[in-house]
What does this fold into?
Amino acid sequence: MVAEKPDQPSRRPGRSIALALTAVFSATIAVATIFSIPLPPPLYEITWAPAIYLALGALTDPVTAFAATGFGSFVGEAFNVSFKGGGSPIYPAGMVWARAPEVLIIAWAKNKGNKALVLAMVAATVYETLAFFFSDWYFYTAGLFQYQVTPGYSPLVLASFDFGTLADLAYIPVALAVIRAARPSFKRLGFD
It folds into this structure.
């Protein structure tokens, strides 16, 4: 039996490390969601958070990335709806529905090379866009959660503004730079 060297991290990080990273990155994603670029309705904002959670999906395990993205997105968007005005009370849940699964797509590709990682980030952003689009289309059609159809526009046309979310593709190079810079530190913590 070969003993592990004490200065080498174990293959998996401990629960306390995963919990600490979840807390730190939840707060970081919340703040990056709160400090957003305002847009006219129905989009309301572009946030700084995508670069963070896109990188997090490749740097940590899927559970940590999913939890941090879900909690941070919910808290940040709940603050925006409550204190900045605008938007529906369903938006915080919608952010979780659209953002948190993105990191699972990225986590799947994180060890498959840079091309696969970039394609996964593109696929994750497309997923987020479609998650917003289909739910908003339904909400406009059914008149749920303060969604009102503007006269002269169909629910499909109003929901199509969600394709503006594809602007998050611009965060992929930033996320790749963060991954490159932070990967050694995350490996020392035990994340592969």
